[in-house]
């Protein structure tokens, strides 16, 4: 029998997320980008000699940084006109960190703040119910495929494929006769607790969803709850503690139906990326986004029944207060955000057919350690491939908090890959001067962004508009649960490749201790 549309769409979402995770810069063939010896790095950070630079003088005479670089043989032009941002602190440190699970206590806080007394139900059971409407849509889809074969292929093909299609239709017709007319909520109330995924697989009801979840998180924990939508708002909360793909909590609320929150991938929002359905709200890019996401086969309409007319300051106040209420305000500070259009991924509800977007504020908060931000980069540490007889697929996602706000309040909350600081390894780290850092950047930026198509007449353009000193997480090549927060320089801007495709964010990250390049997708 054909898989349900629910799981087909899950697969599409995971493919898009995987593309984002794998889209990283080329790794220059140089000793300055090889795997780091963490012990050696710590020893370098402890040194205090004539090469050490105080924070007060780390970038003397560099309020801005301008230069132009080009390499015709590599097809790269680099334009730098950047503000140099240095935190106003006396020192930077090295911290040892490890992944932190989403706790039951924190889940209780989130449910208390956002569900506000509503009864929640086991979404793995209820939102996965194959109602008559769902089965009927699948039957109609198969019949449409049959008509397409009859119209476009010969009699031989029709005779070949017809028995299989008819068998699937007959099975679906039998399922339809016994399927419920609508979701059954009574008796499927959620207990509000995290459970092992293995335990949920054995539970009666929701077998398909929890078996799928088990295939992605066999040793971890899960919680998936939703309200019944009777008040006109559809909300769901998903938690996973997954040692291979990362820990996270997601919440969404909106009209029309339930946004899908239960993907095992833990991506951060990439602002102004139509391929993932996000663009500045003051730009008319819905048609462009529909083409990127759906091949132009659908029209994206604006959901005006979910307005955002409040000011950014009002929205920030709502988000900041929520962060305080759930106890995260001491660890995370506002980093970036604004008013965006975002495509909704509605899988179950009143309107699952209309593809549309809503305008809302999206705010990102990052870890703030002793007056210094951990800088954001969308690339997660990612490993996928064969290791002997085992196929390995692991992610160490980016730690961040994201809050979505419209006129109705908090409509989205993501807590991605939280970390726990276990030790201050070096209290006052030795740092290279910015002169040494920019020498590394100027030597390597053209190599790192060389065009991949040597036959193309067009080249690659790199624009750097901000250079910032902050922290980044690094780890040993085979470690996905522990690491270090170390001082780094991020060169931020935009790369436009030879095909006109743009990639914005951190273009190069350089270790502030030894001036080596850090590849975020490798984690070192």
Automatic annotation (TrEMBL):
PROSITE patterns per the UniProt record, alphabetical: PROKAR_LIPOPROTEIN
Keywords, alphabetical: Coiled coil
Domain of life (superkingdom): Bacteria
Coiled coil: 132-159
InterPro entries registered for this protein in UniProt: DUF6034
Designated name of the protein: Uncharacterized protein
Lineage: Bacteria, Bacillati, Bacillota, Clostridia, Lachnospirales
């Amino acid at each position: 029998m054909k898989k349900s549309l629910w799981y087909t769409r899950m697969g599409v979402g995971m493919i898009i997320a995987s593309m984002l995770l794998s889209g990283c810069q080329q790794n220059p063939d140089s000793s300055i980008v090889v795997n780091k010896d963490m012990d050696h790095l710590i020893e370098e950070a402890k040194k205090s000699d004539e090469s050490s630079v105080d924070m007060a003088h780390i970038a003397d005479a560099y309020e801005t940084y301008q230069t132009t670089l080009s390499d015709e043989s590599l097809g790269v032009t680099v334009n730098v006109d950047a503000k140099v941002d240095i935190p106003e602190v006396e020192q930077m440190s090295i911290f040892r960190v490890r992944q932190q699970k989403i706790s039951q206590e924190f889940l209780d806080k989130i449910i208390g703040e956002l569900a506000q007394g509503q009864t929640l139900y086991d979404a793995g059971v209820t939102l996965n119910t194959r109602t008559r409407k769902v089965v009927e849509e699948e039957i109609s889809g198969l019949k449409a495929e049959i008509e397409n074969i009859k119209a476009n292929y010969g009699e031989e093909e029709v005779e070949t494929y017809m028995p299989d299609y008819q068998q699937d239709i007959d099975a679906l017709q039998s399922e339809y006769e016994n399927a419920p007319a609508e979701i059954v909520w009574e008796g499927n109330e959620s207990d509000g607790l995290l459970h092992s995924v293995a335990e949920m697989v054995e539970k009666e009801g929701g077998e398909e969803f929890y078996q799928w979840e088990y295939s992605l998180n066999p040793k971890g924990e899960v919680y998936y709850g939703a309200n019944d939508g009777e008040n006109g708002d559809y909300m769901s909360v998903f938690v996973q503690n997954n040692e291979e793909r990362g820990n996270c909590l997601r919440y969404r609320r909106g009209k029309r139906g339930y946004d899908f929150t239960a993907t095992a991938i833990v991506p951060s929002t990439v602002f102004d990326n139509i391929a993932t359905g996000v663009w500045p709200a003051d730009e008319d890019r819905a048609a462009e986004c529909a083409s990127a996401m759906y091949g132009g086969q659908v029209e994206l309409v604006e959901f005006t029944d979910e307005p955002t007319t409040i000011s950014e300051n009002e929205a920030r106040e709502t988000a900041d207060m929520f962060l305080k209420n759930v106890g995260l305000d001491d660890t995370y500070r506002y980093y970036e955000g604004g008013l965006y259009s975002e495509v909704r991924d509605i899988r179950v509800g009143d309107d699952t057919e209309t593809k549309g977007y809503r305008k809302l504020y999206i705010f990102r908060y990052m870890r703030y350690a002793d007056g210094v931000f951990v800088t954001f980069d969308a690339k997660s540490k990612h490993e996928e491939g064969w290791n002997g007889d085992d196929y390995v697929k692991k992610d160490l996602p980016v730690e961040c908090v994201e809050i979505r706000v419209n006129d109705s309040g908090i409509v989205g909350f993501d807590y991605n890959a939280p970390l726990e600081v276990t030790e201050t390894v070096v209290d006052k780290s030795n740092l290279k001067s910015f002169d040494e850092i920019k020498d590394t950047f100027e030597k390597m930026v053209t190599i790192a962004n060389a065009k991949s198509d040597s036959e193309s007449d067009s080249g690659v353009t790199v624009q750097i508009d901000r250079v910032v000193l902050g922290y980044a997480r690094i780890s040993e090549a085979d470690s996905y649960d522990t690491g270090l927060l170390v001082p780094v320089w991020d060169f931020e801007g935009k790369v436009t490749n030879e095909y006109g495709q743009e990639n914005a964010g951190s273009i190069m990250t350089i270790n502030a201790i030894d001036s080596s390049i850090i590849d975020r997708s490798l984690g070192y």
